[in-house]
Design goal:
Keywords: Aminoacyl-tRNA synthetase, ATP-binding, Ligase, Nucleotide-binding, Protein biosynthesis, RNA-binding. Its EC number is 6.1.1.1. It catalyses: tRNA(Tyr) + L-tyrosine + ATP = L-tyrosyl-tRNA(Tyr) + AMP + diphosphate + H(+). One of its GO terms (molecular function) is tyrosine-tRNA ligase activity. Belongs to the class-I aminoacyl-tRNA synthetase family. There is one protein chain. The longest helix is centred in the middle third of the chain and has 17 residues, at 171-187. The N and C termini lie far apart (57 Å). The strands form 2 sheets. The chain has a 6-stranded mixed β-sheet, sandwiched between helices. A 5-stranded mixed β-sheet has the order 7-11-10-8-9, with no helix packed on it. α11 (171-187) packs across α12, α13 packs across α17 and α16 (290-305) packs across α17. Helix content is 46%, strand content 12%. The chain has 3 domains: 7-222, 3-Layer(aba) Sandwich (Rossmann fold); 247-323, Tyrosyl-Transfer RNA Synthetase; 333-396, RNA-binding S4 domain (Structural Genomics Hypothetical 15.5 Kd Protein In mrcA-pckA Intergenic Region, Chain A, Roll), CATH 3.10.290. The chain is an alpha/beta fold.
């Protein structure tokens, strides 16, 4: 496998969207220019059924490594997801079963194929960490733990915050970085890529490989896409874009982002050239309406995951619904067995539980034929158009 050592491509890999490189940028640059084929990985704990834009940011960086000829591994945390990564969590994660984890990861490859190449001579490999972590005995775990100190873990901000608030820290949460660190040892990799919120866990693998006398592992951390206050995209905020989203949903969610996410969005979530990034920044400084730039960002993202035609159609649908306050031309029809609004919302898939359905009605987020409904006892009729929020419409048969 011939390795591409083009200086411009390497410069882009080392800078665009990158937060930090350990042990140093110079170390990784030298390795990339040596012509040696490197093996690196990204670990993903399957805590949900869909990959999201946060994963995609890291996939984009892996894509750069792959296009230079390096070996890329996607590691599914089929063991670590059962422990639960404590990073940035104010409480202990709810544990998952192996069955839940594997079900969650079922469609990951299909979704990741939108960015990475899983075919050909330099295809991305998929591995599962339960295949080696399941085999560790208690003595081996003790030996691995001897390479770390309690102080290393307690210094983490999230643990300091929990202790001040009197919240518990479970012992198994200390073992999570240890297990993730062992992944690097088991696969004998040259490096790891991840979001900068994973720095501690990734450096645990680097420390462990050094302690065991293996090699100097590089760690490349990417910036996170956050709002100006530093909060990441999330399900609770309603702006989490998954790789399974429709073009309309992707477009609409980007348009709901704050203005402060526009430039980071172009940098981290698109393939636009660096020259264009500077132009976008200049246009904002000169007072151009941020909404116009946000439209361009939404189109870039939808076009990357789908195509230009569907990006144009998504823009058209967005304008029709939000600027002209009209319904979309095509509304999906669904048959229901119960016509109470709570049951209708569940049966049509607009919500997943009765509690969510009742909350949507109470928050005046549900309309029937463009009229807000106020009662959970409302009865829907055949032919009615049910709307949840701003973007979701269903016609009842």
């Amino acid at each position: 496998m011939k390795i591409d050592t083009d200086s411009q491509k390497i410069e882009k890999l080392l800078t665009r969207g990158v937060q930090n490189i350990y042990p140093s940028r110079e170390f990784l640059e030298k390795r990339l220019k040596s012509g040696q084929r490197l093996t690196l990985y990204l670990g993903i704990d399957p805590t949900g059924t869909d990959l999201h834009l946060g994963h995609a940011i890291n996939f984009m960086k892996l894509r750069e490594f792959q296009q230079l000829g390096h070996q890329v591994i996607i590691l599914i945390g089929s063991f670590t997801a059962m422990i639960g990564d404590p990073t940035d969590k104010s409480a202990t994660r709810k544990p998952l079963t192996r069955e839940q984890v594997l079900i969650n990861a079922k469609n990951y490859k299909k979704q990741a194929e939108k960015i990475l190449d899983f075919t050909g001579k330099n295809k991305v490999e998929i591995k599962f960490n339960h295949k080696w972590l399941d085999k560790l005995d208690f003595r081996q775990v003790i030996d691995l733990a001897s390479n770390f100190t309690v102080q290393q873990f307690l210094e983490r901000d999230m643990y300091q915050k929990r202790m001040k608030e009197g919240k518990p820290i479970s012992l198994h949460e200390f073992l999570y970085p240890l297990m993730q660190g062992y992944d690097s040892v088991a696969m004998d990799v040259d490096g790891e890529v991840g979001g900068n919120d994973q720095t501690f866990n990734m450096l645990a693998g680097r420390d462990l490989m050094k302690s065991l006398g293996m090699k100097e592992k590089f760690v490349l951390t990417n910036k996170l896409l956050t709002d100006p206050s530093g909060i990441k995209m999330g399900k609770s905020e309603g702006n989490m874009i998954t790789l399974a989203d429709s073009p309309d949903d992707m477009f609409g969610k980007v348009m709901s982002w704050t203005d402060g996410m526009i430039i980071p969005g172009f940098e981290l979530c698109t393939m636009v050239e660096s020259v264009k990034l500077k132009l976008f920044e200049e246009r904002l400084k000169q007072g151009e309406n941020p909404r116009d730039l946000k439209v361009e960002l939404a189109k870039e993202i939808v076009e990357f995951y789908f195509d230009e035609d569907r990006a144009d159609k998504a823009e058209e649908n967005f304008v029709q619904m939000f600027q002209k306050k009209e319904r979309p031309d095509e509304i999906e029809e669904k048959t229901v067995s119960n016509f109470n609004i709570v049951d209708v919302l569940i049966e049509t898939g607009l919500v997943i539980s009765k509690s969510e359905a009742k909350r949507m009605v109470e928050q005046k987020a549900v309309k029937i034929n463009d009229e807000i409904i106020n009662s959970v006892e409302f009865e829907v009729k055949s032919g009615d158009v049910v709307q949840k929020g701003k973007r979701h419409f269903v016609k009842i048969k």
